[in-house]
Amino acid sequence: MKGYIDILAPSAPETSSVSQRGEKEGERAFQSSRQNERRSPQPLIIRYSTLSGHHHPHHPAFVPTMSSGVGVNDQCLTAFQDLKLKKKFKYIIFNLNKDLTEIVVEKTSDNQSYDDFLGDLPETECRWVIYDFEFEKEGGGKRNKIIFLSWSPDDAKIKQKMVFASSRDALKRSLTGVAVEIQGTDFSEVAYESVLDKANRGH
Amino acid sequence: MVNYGGDEVSALVIDIGASSVRAGYAGDDCPKAIIPTSYGYHPAPPDADVTMSDGAENIDAVNKSKFANIYIGQSGPSIWREGMEVGNPMVEGLIQDFNPIKPLIDHALEKTMRVNSSEHPILVTEPTWNTPANRERMAEIMFEEFNVPAFYIANTGVLNAFAAGKGSALVIDVGQSMASVTPVVDGFVLRKGLSYSPLPKLIHAHARHILISPTPHRRGIELLPHQLIANKTLVDAGAPPKFTIRQDRIAGTTESWRNWAETREIDEWVQSVAGVLDQGWNDAVAAQRTARQYEFPTGYNNYFGLERFQVGEQFFTHSPQLVASNPNLPKTIPQLITEALRACDPELRQVLMGNVVLTGGGTLFSGFADRLTAELTRSFPHTKIHAPGNPVERRYGGWLGGSILASLGTFHQLWISKEEWQEHGKPIVGQRCK
Question: Is the residue at A66 inside a domain?
Answer without folding.
Answer: no
